[in-house]
UniProtKB/TrEMBL annotation:
It holds the Pfam family Oxidored_molyb. InterPro entries: Ig_E-set, OxRdtase_Mopterin-bd_dom, OxRdtase_Mopterin-bd_sf. It comes from Adlercreutzia shanghongiae. Residues 19-91 form the Oxidoreductase molybdopterin-binding domain. SUPFAM superfamilies: E set domains, Oxidoreductase molybdopterin-binding domain. This is Molybdopterin-dependent oxidoreductase.
């Protein structure tokens, strides 16, 4: 069987036998290699990006191209791809599941929160942050002012897994004192962040 070999616009070399392929391997200019099952890349709608919002990614991200797979963490996104190998492996690579292994995928669904450190009685305070959960949608953000005793849930509209949720929340204190706002996100399975984001502040 003859190998197919061609040059892409970015001068990456593509090798393999397309009709017998179950595995795709991306090789970066620095030697980084990452393999995926072909089916997985097709299902996810993987792309090799060379532009972001119409601009060359070289100027934006400092690489000539970068793999992007919806729902995957960035560690899989090979930068400066120089070679793409299409092969047929006896044991195709396995990706995920993205469970907390003590190093990666901790605190799913994830959330962050920030606000001013000093508020005033009767004046709205704005809390803001982001939430995301890799390949799962974020459906709500929850807030607690009593150390997690009670949570007030705000449902979100149309969210997708691949776009982070950027949220804002206004709250007006009516008593002075020391406060802690706890925030957690909720994913499409109804699971809330195991560890809440905490913002400690004072109201004068
Ligand atoms: N060629 C190459 N690609 C790479 C890496 C690398 O070391 N070499 N690091 C990966 C990791 S760990 C991350 S988090 C992302 C970072 O991509 P960014 O700099 O575009 O955010 O690139 C990934 N792609
Ligand atoms: Mo990373």
């Amino acid at each position: 069987m003859e190998e197919e070999r061609r040059e892409t616009a970015e001068n990456a070399t593509v090798t393999g036998e397309p009709e017998k392929c179950n595995t795709v391997t991306f090789v970066g200019a620095d030697g980084m290699e990452q393999s995926f099952p072909l089916d997985f890349l097709l299902e996810r709608g993987a792309i090799v990006a060379n532009k972001v919002n119409g601009e060359d990614i070289l100027g934006v991200m400092g690489a000539v191209n970068q793999l992007w797979v919806p729902g995957l963490p960035a560690k899989y996104f090979v930068r400066d791809i120089r070679e793409i190998r299409f092969t047929n492996e006896e044991v195709p690579p396995v990706i995920g599941p993205f469970v907390d292994d003590g190093h990666d995928y901790t605190n799913r669904p994830n959330v962050a929160a920030k606000a001013e450190y000093v508020g005033r009685v009767g004046e709205p305070m704005e809390f803001s942050g982001w939430a995301h959960d890799f390949d799962k949608r974020i459906i709500a953000v929850e807030f607690s002012l009593d150390n997690g005793g009670h949570w007030t849930r705000y449902d979100l509209g149309d969210t997708t897994p691949e776009r982070w949720v950027s949220w804002t929340f206004a709250w007006t204190p009516d008593e002075p004192g020391a406060y802690q706002m706890k925030v957690r996100s909720v994913n499409e399975d109804g699971d809330a962040s195991p560890v809440a984001a905490v913002h400690t502040f004072e109201v004068l």
